[in-house]
Design brief:
- With 152 residues, the chain is of the alpha+beta class.
- The chain contains three helices and eight strands.
- It has one domain: Roll (Pnp Oxidase, Chain A).
- Helices cover 20% and strands 37% of the residues.
- Strands 1, 2, 3, 4, 5, 6, 7 and 8 form an eight-stranded antiparallel sheet that branches.
- A hairpin with a 5-residue loop joins strand 1 (19-25) and strand 2 (31-37).
- The longest helix has 13 residues, at 98-110.
- It is globular.
- The model has no long low-confidence stretch (mean pLDDT 94).
Length: 152
């Protein structure tokens, strides 16, 4: 993507990719990266579905801070760009999953996946809905320096 990084650069990267790497940490600070399929709302809220017993889900119960990277892993060497996000995340409570699961279901259907419903992310189902809220969004410039962008 030519030109200096900006909000448009970040939006294009987010829209063109289906997976993000979610970085969480356990109580001792040990990091744990996890690739997850995601959907977003307004480039600030990122939703995914996961097993509450997964390592990253357990980590979020004790430490809400997350790092996220969204990038095309198929890009040619030296030609790829990514979006880097810092924020907080959590499992959404059962009474608060309606809007988020609708956002997730729409993107899932657009990519040939299933239509997720509220029942799919509430007990006794195997999955829960999670949301990360970006507090800072970055892209790298041509010198690999981090540049914060405002994308909302």
């Amino acid at each position: 993507m030519p030109g200096p990084p900006n909000a448009g650069t970040a939006r294009k990267i987010i829209d063109r990719n289906r997976f993000m790497v979610l970085a969480t940490a356990d109580p001792s600070g040990q990091p744990w990266p996890s690739p997850v399929y995601f959907a977003h709302r307004d480039y600030r809220e990122f939703f995914w579905v996961s097993d509450p017993d997964a390592a990253h889900s357990q980590n979020l119960r004790v430490r809400r801070e997350v790092g996220i990277v969204i990038f095309d892993s198929r890009a040619k060497l030296g030609a790829g760009q990514g979006v880097y996000l810092l924020g907080v995340a959590q499992e959404l409570p059962a009474h608060d999953v309606g809007e988020g699961v609708a956002v997730f279901a729409e993107r899932s259907l657009d990519h040939g996946g299933p239509e997720w419903t509220v029942e799919d992310v509430r007990e006794p189902s195997k999955h829960r809905l999670y949301r990360a809220t970006a507090e800072a969004v970055y892209v790298l410039d041509e010198h690999d320096h981090r540049v914060e962008v405002e994308i909302s």
